[in-house]
Amino acid sequence: MGHHHQDILNRVECWRDRLSTVEKTGYGSYSGQAEKKHRRRKIRIMNITTDLSEALKRIEELEHELEVSNGLLKDRDALLNAIPLCPAHGLCFPHALEWIEQVKTLSRIISGL
Ligand SMILES: [Zn+2]
Questions:
Q1: N or C: which end of the chain has fewer CB within 10 A?
Q2: How far is the CA of 112 from the centre of ligand 1 (A)?
Q3: Positive or negative, the Cα torsion across 37, 38, 41, 47?
């Protein structure tokens, strides 16, 4: 998990701690109204924590997927860079396939097959 994500989770965790400290020390002079307000706030923060964890998990997944995609693109570019560029498009897959077909034909002619 990235530092940034961990920082966000730590801050939410800190809020949860503060809320539970209020609970442990008792509501004391809290009126019933204030206690109700506190409980509502707590539920909200618990929900935020859950949503946030889910969101951060999804971000981690997407970052991983992106890494994989970038790896594939790098492989693709390396392959395209290994052959002459397409006159019209530069790095171009249809051109690459056509070029390989021509080389295969040429190789058949050279080897007399
Ligand atoms: Zn092309």
A1: C
A2: 30
A3: negative
